[in-house]
Amino acid sequence: MTDLGGGYTLRPIPLDGYRAACARLEGQIFGGTWGYAFGPPTLSAPPLGETFTWGISHGEEVVGWQYSHRTDERTVSMADTGILPAHQGQGLYSRLLPHVLDAFRTAGYTLVQSHHRATNNRVIIPKLRAGFLVQGLNLYEGGVNVALTLSLDAAYRDAMHVRSGFAQAHGDTARRLGVSALPQPPAPPVPVIPLPDDASAGVDLGGEYTLHAVPEATYRAVYAQLEAAVYDTVSFEWPHAGRHAPPDVPQYAWLVAHGGHVVGWQSSRQWNARTAYMTNTAFLPAHRGRGLYTRLLPVILAFLRGQGYDLVRSAHHATNTAVLLPKLRAGFRLQGLEIGDHGVMAVLIHSFDDVYREYMDVRSGLKRPTGEVARRLGLDGG
């Protein structure tokens, strides 16, 4: 038995015990979701591989479970975790994850996979914090799922970063991928750029950091000077410039300053009639890992909302968890993956409209269509 804190414990239970708990409690846990009701199965289920089943208790009361099973010679699937609503929102999922993952590691697995409704940030966030990486979205009988994979092998974890374009292949990862990176010149020294004179008065971001609106041309000039110092990702190099002028839409740009010098930026633009696009955010390496992105987000979102946008879109390398996490915490929802010049990108959307936000939950199957969402979809939501 494992103490999870707060009076909660995690202990192994028989497979039949897990099934009995499901039959008794799943209506309370998953009753508000929206899935497709198949008829009785026509074929028998395939034989199960190795299974892992745990019960979650609070005192003497069983309040949830975790069930996983082997899917192939190196992979285990975290197929089902359920916690009664009264015991959700207390960090239980985050606290049980390390113990479950240790069991898989001890059992010799290389990969851990899981699937969750794509808008269920309350589960996706702790999974990403534990090292899982986004693999994609798919339609299934329960709605729209996001597939996540955790690699317990460091080289394969690095290979996923290479696949997404977030990092170059080196060492054992390059060997296993059958490639070698071209030699690169030494990194140039990082330019020291004073905050330009045409920057607006700063918004305090804490920690002596400030955010300043600047003209688009000023942002572009700073970007050109600092780009090499900010990015070590791998993008496709077009042999020629684009043949058409970029769309003539509103552009918004800010510089982040520390000690009177530029250490980062944020740029956004109009995407369509109701959507803004957070085009680019970057900080010099010495200023990362300080919560700057988390503190910057509310300021940018408030500005874009004030401009009349209903939605905010962004795209990030699919394995760039350091950016995906604050975006999901701020209310962005995963929309899918796309391949572009910069690699495999996770597309996110933030809605300022409460009904549209609930609509995304309905599309994913996390919620049943009721009330105003049902009406807008032409459904009788009860």
From TrEMBL:
A Pfam match: Acetyltransf_1
UniProt xrefs under InterPro entries: Acyl_CoA_acyltransferase, GNAT_dom, YpeA/RimI_acetyltransf
Coiled coil (residue ranges): none
Keywords in alphabetical order: Acyltransferase, Transferase
Residues spanning the signal sequence: none
Domain annotation N-acetyltransferase: ranges: 8-153, 209-350
Protein name according to UniProt: Acetyltransferase
Organism: Deinococcus metalli
